[in-house]
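Project channel, design review

CF: Before we commit to the Mycoemilia scoparia constructs, I'd like one complete example in the thread so the newer folks can see what an input/output pair looks like. Taking Ribosome assembly factor mrt4.
RD: sounds good, go ahead.
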Amino acid sequence: MPRSKRAKIVSLTKTDSKGLDGKKNLINEIQKGVESYGYIWVFSVENSRNTYLKDLRSSMKTSRFFFGKNKVMAKALGNDSETELRDNLSKISERLSGDVGLLFTNTGPKEIKSHFDGYRELDYARAGNRATFDVVVESGEVKRGPSEESFPNNMEPQLRKLGMPTSLKKGKIVLDSDYTICKQGQILTPEQAQLLKLFWVQMAEFHINLLCYWHNDEFVEVESTEKKDDAMESD
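CF: and here is what came back for Ribosome assembly factor mrt4:
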């Protein structure tokens, strides 16, 4: 059996008084999770969307997801070998940086990796995202979507306000020349992101990247190499 460490009393004296109860509750729930679940994962989120995160949680009802301030979650697990709840949990804390979360589960790594690899959802890109392909609107009547649906003529002012040199001719929105909304690799402006949405062009993909996990006092980095995959499968 893995060696247990004594329960740690976590001080929150350096945290803001606002939301103190919420931080205490988060710490308590995370520490309970250490005792209840065999695996603790750190994951990052690409193109985070609340709807998809909610669906993902629903698909894994026997597991628990935690999102919160990284410093608070790290404090719950322990920041070093002296304060960590279990051996090597502080290595999990070290990876809590950026847009990440914790997953507590009793499901093995092979199944978890397969589940997350298969959960990908397309959505509309937001301002600040990078365009993944060129989008060009051809001259003539302005249309959108695979079915080339015409825009309602009352949307012409909105398109023009977003930068498209459109005009109304015989009740139809038209362009005198081709118009490039974005080019591959370009950082999208708010206007470009809104135009892509109006044209029903999705180029953002919600998915989860698994970074590392802890199990039986062992810390494992997750890398996209054949060697690491083999190690996960044999765990």
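RD: helpful, thanks. Residues 135-201 form a domain with the Molybdopterin biosynthesis moea protein, domain 2 fold (CATH 3.90.105.20).
CF: The two ends are 16 Å apart (CA to CA).
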